[in-house]
Design a protein that fits this description.
The protein is an alpha+beta fold and about 160 residues long. It has 4 helices and 5 strands; from the N terminus they run ββαβαββαα. Helix 2 packs antiparallel against helix 3.
């Protein structure tokens, strides 16, 4: 009989409903995932989710959350139709905590261990272009993207005693 502790979970979001076709072998262990988003997140930064005997538990295994809040300015006022589409699409991403709108500003709060600003922006761009052509143009904030990647790299680089750089 399976106990809650022995239930196989997605290493990224900890969901128990896994897709048997989504797996990745890391350090000789097959990891199974609930979604392609979680699989890609894991592949990009596996040490955020899997620790090792020398350094201890990973940030995710330590139940760490890296909450980010972003204010994304769009070129035009966000229509009610676009709000509905964006809300649905963004909520389908793992790690999204809150979404809000104010005229042409989108406010989003998310767990960086589960989703990045880059992924969020791609969803916005895809949906906005389907709705209104070039409402957004390109929302590229490379400094924030670079900052997030550096932060993830530091978190994934485990040190003795379970600390991070």
């Amino acid at each position: 009989m399976s106990t809650p502790e022995s239930t196989i979970r997605c290493p990224v979001c900890h969901m128990t409903k896994l897709n048997p076709t989504l797996f990745f072998s890391f350090q000789g262990v097959e990891q199974y995932f609930c979604s392609s988003q979680c699989l890609e997140r894991f592949k990009a930064h596996p040490h955020l989710f899997v620790g090792d005997p020398q350094h201890g538990l990973s940030p995710k295994q330590n139940k760490q959350v890296v909450l980010k809040q972003r204010r994304i300015m769009l070129k035009k006022r966000i229509s009610e139709d676009l709000k509905a589409v964006l809300e649905k699409s963004l909520r389908s991403l793992m790690g999204i905590k809150e979404i809000g709108f104010d005229q042409q500003v989108l406010f989003v709060s998310y767990d960086l261990l589960q989703v990045s600003l880059d992924t969020i922006e791609k969803v916005i761009e895809d949906n906005a272009s389907q709705q209104n052509g070039t409402v957004l143009g390109k929302i590229k904030r490379s400094i924030i993207h670079y900052s997030e990647e550096c932060e993830l790299g530091n978190l994934a680089h485990l040190t003795k005693g379970g600390g991070y750089h």
